[in-house]
Design goal:
Layout: H1 4-36, E1 38-43, E2 46-51, E3 57-59, H2 62-70, E4 77-78, E5 96-97, H3 106-112, E6 116-119, H4 127-131, E7 136-138, H5 146-160, H6 164-185, E8 190-197, E9 200-204, H7 212-216, E10 220-221, E11 233-235, H8 237-243, E12 247-252, H9 253-257, H10 264-267, H11 271-274, H12 277-280, E13 284-286, H13 289-295, H14 299-312
Parallel strand pairs: 3-6, 4-5, 6-7, 8-10, 8-12, 12-13
Antiparallel strand pairs: 1-2, 8-9, 9-11
Helix pairs in contact: 5-6, 6-14
């Protein structure tokens, strides 16, 4: 015989189980909905429908890699590269290698079945083929408007991985450092950026791949360098002496790409360079080659770049 109290208890248990089942189904539905959600990303080569919080992410762009590292986002595949110390963990064997900085390994990429592929200028020509494998976005930085382009790319990654608040927090802190550096630059005279490679020298100015020093941080260019974007202007020691910059910033490409060559410090060790105001006043700054040449515009890396220029000024 079932008493009334037992009957009520049984009814309550059935109701509780039913509610629990409904809650579980709702939770499962929410998870499935989150997994199925996408966002449309506008990028350098058009627009692409990208999954929100993609599980398997490959990137050829080390700036994007640096940003994702700053945002604590897992990256599963990267090109084989001479990573700076800040990104050295991505050289580990357990991280899938998806080609070189300039040549994708399409077979390895296809086998890995990524949910998102991120590229930039060095492999931009492979966009169409990579897009056949997975949603692909080109986060190349526009050197003509590098600061805003960098911030837009960072916010794009924040949207894809639902890290918008953290992105704004970090960009805000970075903006403050930029303003502090611009104040120093206003009274620091002018500057020249040169890159050495195989004993040869190339100068870069405003609007170039290293133009953050002039365009964003406000240091007056010591000369109107003719080269733009990725390609600077081939220069001589006489050019540096005639330009006579207050500050000289130097990038050693050979170190960045891991090839043998005369070190930048040795290349510049001559009387013409020593005659400049930069040399006489101890204002020659050797920039971290991998950071400036390979990584570029990433959240952590830009912070480091700004700090380097700030300290030099």
């Amino acid at each position: 015989m079932i008493t009334k109290s037992r009957l009520l208890a049984g009814t309550a248990l059935v109701s509780l189980l039913a509610l629990s089942a409904c809650s579980t189904e709702a939770a499962d539905a929410d998870v499935e909905s989150a997994q199925d959600s996408t966002v449309t990303v506008e990028h350098a080569q058009g627009s692409t429908e990208v999954p929100v919080n993609p599980e398997i992410v490959y990137t050829f762009d080390l700036g994007a890699l640096d940003t994702m590292d700053a945002l604590d986002i897992d990256v599963d595949g990267v090109p084989a590269a001479n990573f700076p110390a800040s990104l050295s963990q991505y050289g580990a064997e357990e991280i899938t290698k998806i080609g070189s900085m300039k040549e994708p390994d399409f077979e390895a990429i296809n086998a890995g079945a990524p949910d998102l592929i991120i590229i930039s200028g060095r492999v931009a020509d492979s966009y169409e083929e990579l897009s056949k494998i997975a949603p692909t976005v080109d986060l190349s930085v526009d050197n003509g408007d590098s600061w805003n382009s960098f911030k837009e790319n960072t916010r794009t990654l924040g949207t894809i991985f639902e890290k918008e608040d953290l992105v704004e927090e970090k960009l805000g802190a970075l903006e403050g450092k930029v303003e502090d550096t611009k104040e120093l630059a206003a009274d620091a005279g002018n500057g020249l950026i040169v890159m050495t490679s195989g004993g040869e020298m190339t100068a870069y100015g405003a609007g170039s791949r290293f133009g953050i020093i002039h365009d964003v941080l406000g240091l007056e260019p010591a000369a109107e360098v003719q080269g733009e974007g990725k390609h600077g202007e081939s220069v001589s020691f006489n050019y540096i002496a005639d330009t006579d910059p207050d500050h000289l910033f130097v990038i050693d490409r050979d170190v960045a790409v891991g090839t043998s060559g005369e070190a930048a410090s040795a290349v510049l060790d001559n009387e013409l360079v020593k005659s400049t105001k930069a040399a006489r006043n101890g204002n020659i700054t050797m920039l971290d080659s991998a950071s400036w040449y390979l990584v570029g515009y990433g959240l952590n890396n830009v912070d480091t770049m700004v700090n380097t220029v700030h300290d030099a000024l």
